[in-house]
Write a structure and sequence with these properties.
Length: about 650
């Protein structure tokens, strides 16, 4: 075996790069060995598997798939032609290749079941020896052969045969080719028997029947969902096959993964890494219409929402409009202490933090220098803790040797918390560990401390003035004006009181979910404003609507299932609470990362985030340290930048 066979080709196959060509090379090599040198069942199975890669490519989780669209429209020689050829091969040959694989396996099983002699030429192309396990059960082999040959109950038959082979391995009667046999069957189990099969015919008939039932006809009930956050998306996704017309409205054209928003603010991730366009998410759902616009009012009497004064009628309304910052009656602080709820907020915070270092490099005033390098975070919840930890990491690592007139590590990071401990919704033991981790990074944690004033020069804490150029707000939120739109009562945070089915009192066709709703559905306690809660609420409302429209009984009252709480502190530590199980340190940090990557929308975002984290973790370099927007002069000169409030 040559160097390319041992290293290059396996690497290409693993990465999914030039997959068809690498697989074609290996297919030819295996067939030459099988026909002219050492005929083995393993070679036959390998040939079938390599043939699958030649015909179908590497699949969606591959470099080939990521590059395909760009190559098809590039100026590289033969790139467009080869891309079109690959698509044509998959489109036209895949059904026949699936049929060939089925008939090949069926013939081998049939030969074992009937114990018929096979000619030498044909015997070298049939994996008879590795299927000898089925010889004592000829009826089983015969049934399996017929089902696979005709493509009837193919997936069930393939999984059954895989289970039998696994059982044979357990009792110890194993053959080296059994693994390859199972992998070949797995192709049928995963991808099905193809178009040329009985299963496909049955599926086509069933699909036509379902389409007649679920296709959005004129006059079908109209569900309007306001907000494309976690709750709105979950509700729309579950209504994708329901007999309704759905209109999903949002003031942005993207869905934002807010749990990682602070990493955009800290220059660890790009905004595009945590956002996906809403239209692309529902491009295959013909009953879902996405509309870009700002909802300004709701008329419950006429059953219409107003988008910039334009009415849109609804039969059912779902409000998933989220929340914004709450300054507890001091909205005049907003220009000096931006919160973190939108991409614009994150980019503005990133600009302020990075600009502070740039201005500290050029200032000659000692007082200004200290203020520029003092960062105050108000609020000790998960967002405040994560911001404080990441700022501390930023000033300690990654910027050394970049500034000539000061050391970034001399920056001061202060976390102000009004309660007796940070992360008050976590168990006390995790709060203590989180505080120790923050203090280990150099963060000053001020507990039971009250912010009395914020202006362009700093903050007043417990009567003591602290000069700070950058103040960040993570202390509270207020719900969207949904209660005002509906003309119903709300709590102090603006949340709408909802019933057991998340509908509004006296408005049975209006539902409120997520941060906008006050639902006592967590063992009698209010549901927290977390992404999982919004997703569960959205899916539940979709179930309520589907059952109501089809005349089925209503589901039981909504009950929030708490999956756990997580908060990360820097690059090595985190705290996690899964009901009664507490996890901290590096293990919690890995769990936090895996869970957040899994919850991201879109393969591109997952890959990009993992690469950015991996690069930053090994190099201490942040990939998006760009200062964008208005780079106005110092706020001490009276120039105030930033979002104008919640």
């Amino acid at each position: 075996m040559g160097w390319s066979d041992a290293y290059v080709v396996p690497a290409l196959l693993a990465l999914g790069l030039a997959t068809r060509w690498a697989a074609l090379y290996m297919l030819i090599l295996v067939l030459v060995v099988q026909i002219h040198y050492v005929p083995l069942d393993i070679n036959l199975y390998s040939a079938v598997l390599f043939g699958w890669l030649v015909v179908c490519g590497a699949g969606p989780l591959s470099i080939d798939r990521l590059l395909a669209r760009g190559l098809a429209d590039s100026a590289l020689p033969f790139a467009a032609t080869l891309t079109k050829l690959a698509r044509a091969i998959t489109r036209y040959l895949k059904p026949y290749y699936q049929l060939l694989v089925r008939l090949w396996l069926a013939l081998a099983l049939l030969a074992v079941s009937a114990e018929t002699p096979i000619s030498g030429a044909l015997k070298s192309l049939i994996p008879e020896h590795s299927l000898s396990h089925f010889a004592p059960a000829p009826t089983l082999a015969l049934v399996g052969a017929l089902l696979i040959a005709f493509g009837l109950l193919t997936r069930a038959a393939a999984l059954t045969l895989i289970a039998i082979v696994a059982g044979i391995h357990i009792v110890g009667a194993a053959d080296p080719a059994d693994v390859y046999f199972s992998m070949t069957l797995a192709l049928l189990a995963l991808y099905g028997p193809g178009h040329l099969s009985v299963d496909q015919g049955i599926s086509a008939v069933v699909s036509k029947i379902e389409n007649k039932k679920t296709s959005p006809l004129e006059g079908a009930p109209h569900v309007v969902i306001v907000g494309a956050g976690f709750g709105g998306l979950a509700c729309a996704a579950k209504l994708a096959r329901a007999p309704v017309r759905v209109t999903l409205i949002d003031r942005h054209n993207y869905h934002l993964f807010q749990p990682l928003l602070y990493q955009v603010a800290m220059a660890s991730l790009s905004p595009a890494d945590i956002a996906s366009t809403v239209r692309s998410l529902f491009s295959d759902n013909c009953n879902i219409n996405v509309m870009l616009g700002q909802v300004t009012a709701v008329d419950t009497m006429q059953q219409a929402v107003f988008i910039d004064k334009r009415p849109l009628s609804y039969d059912f309304l779902v409000l998933a409009t989220g929340a914004s910052h709450s300054y507890f009656g001091r909205d005049d602080w907003a220009p000096y202490a931006p919160g973190l709820k939108t991409l614009d907020d994150a980019v503005e915070i990133r600009r302020r933090i990075l600009s502070a270092f740039e201005r500290a490099e050029t200032t000659e005033d000692r007082a200004d220098h200290l203020g520029l390098l003092t960062f105050v975070i108000v609020g000790g919840g998960p967002t405040g803790v994560e911001l404080a930890g990441d700022i501390a990491e930023l000033v300690r690592y990654g910027m050394e040797n970049e500034f000539r007139h000061f050391d970034p590590r001399c920056a001061r990071v202060v976390l102000v918390q009004s309660a007796a401990r940070i992360l008050p919704t976590f168990p006390a033991v995790l709060s203590e560990k989180a505080q120790r981790s923050l203090e280990g990074l150099g963060v000053e944690v001020m507990l039971a401390s009250r912010v009395e004033h914020i202006d362009q020069n700093g903050v007043l804490i417990n009567g003591t003035r602290l000069a700070a150029c950058t103040v960040l707000w993570a202390a509270g939120v207020v719900a969207s004006p949904a209660a005002l739109w509906l003309n119903v009562d709300s709590d102090r945070s603006g949340r709408v009181m909802v019933g057991p089915d998340l509908s509004v009192a006296d408005l049975p066709n209006v539902f409120v979910i997520g941060d906008t709703a006050l639902a006592h559905a967590w063992k009698g306690k209010p549901v927290p404003g977390l992404a999982p809660a919004a997703k569960q609420g959205g899916a539940y409302v979709a179930t309520v609507l589907s059952r109501r429209l089809t005349g089925r009984p209503a589901p039981p009252p909504f009950q929030y299932r708490h999956m756990g709480s997580l908060a990360t502190i820097g690059r090595k530590a985190a705290v996690a609470n899964f009901n009664r199980i507490n996890v901290s340190g590096a293990l919690a940090w890995w769990l936090w990362g895996l869970i957040h990557v899994a919850l991201l929308v879109g393969l591109r975002n997952r890959i990009s985030v993992m690469f950015s984290w991996f690069w930053a973790y090994l190099t201490f370099k942040r990939s998006t340290r760009l200062i964008t927007g208005d780079t106005a002069p110092s706020r001490r000169d009276g120039a105030v930048e930033g979002p104008g409030g919640p």
